[in-house]
Specification:
Elements: E1 8-12, H1 27-39, E2 44-46, E3 51-58, E4 61-68, H2 75-79, H3 86-89, E5 92-102, E6 106-110, H4 118-127, E7 133-140, H5 154-161, H6 167-190, H7 192-199
Parallel strand pairs: 1-4, 1-5, 5-7
Antiparallel strand pairs: 2-3, 3-4, 6-7
Helix pairs in contact: 1-6, 6-7
Amino acid sequence: MYTIPMSYIIAGLGNPGAEYDNTRHNTGRIVLEVVRNEFGDEYKFDKKLNAQVSAGKIGKEKAVFIAPDTFMNLSGRAIAPLVKSVKAAQRLVVIYDDFNLPLGRIRISFNRSSGGHNGIESIIKAVQTEAFLRIRIGTAPENAKGNAKTPHGDEKIEKFILGKFKEDELKTLKKVAKTVAEAVEMIIREGKDKAMSKFN
């Protein structure tokens, strides 16, 4: 298992299994793949964490990239063994989907509630703090006012987030992933406040 002391932990959330490939709920994993390609080595399956794990460096800082192979609502199980203190949590960056943001947009935040996202809720419970960084990736179509066209009702929301991206949406997401890689690099090299100022 990767136990590099005080590494940055960059996590991308999603669901395991081919049936979830390219679904909106797997946005975190899709984007993490681009970030990992830039800064890390090949994924290896870590049995103890039940996750795909990669080691790398961003600037002079060591980083661990982790894609849990748990389902979304159990994401915290894979991350908790790497984040054993509140101080360590401040070096955790979690990338995940947000259907309240239009596709093409990202938002960086720190020390907030889960906003109803099951993956984030699981991580908060597992690491026992909300004081970690999140990068939310928009997945919704945009309306005429530039806001997200969000689904309403549990059934429609579930159908939407488990639906697959169209070809042109995936192209947009790959561009967004490059921006996220820049944001992660700025967080680590220059701090979260600068990154929030530039990318939010």
